[in-house]
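Slide 14.
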Amino acid sequence: MAIDKVKAYFGQYGMEDKILEFDVSSATVELAAEALHCAPQRIAKTLSFLVDGHAMLIVTAGDAKIDNAKYKAQFKTKAKMLSPEDVERLVGHAVGGVCPFAVKEGTEVYLDVSLKRFETVFPACGSSNSAIELTIAQLEEYSGYAGWVDVCKGYEMETAEGC
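Slide 15: predicted structure.
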């Protein structure tokens, strides 16, 4: 199971006990916010795209949406999301639990600037009922990110720290 891979991944840093598992689904931003009792903006959702035949992940704030023009300017191609089958096959996590941790080799991870307004965010951990609270610096470190991008729209730059 993908959550076991993520637990093992965080185990090498002594962080596996920080992973939260819920009795309810956290597969969507709204469900995760309910499970965590926090603002949906602080859910770090991981979106999966196909670029040059490879999987690419972009981690965004829960209230952000991909801006196709910004995406194309950044990556020089049209945004093409992976199908649910391809997400699991190419990334290693199923839809609802996709995260930037313990992904298949060759999967690039980018962090969107929509996350920078928060001290901590909550990405999933490989299952549809898990999350971990990380600072932005920890998200950078543990995601193995390739860089910061500005490819989203629809979010407010004000913080929503409630959790």
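Speaker note: Residues 29 and 84 are 17 Å apart (CA to CA).
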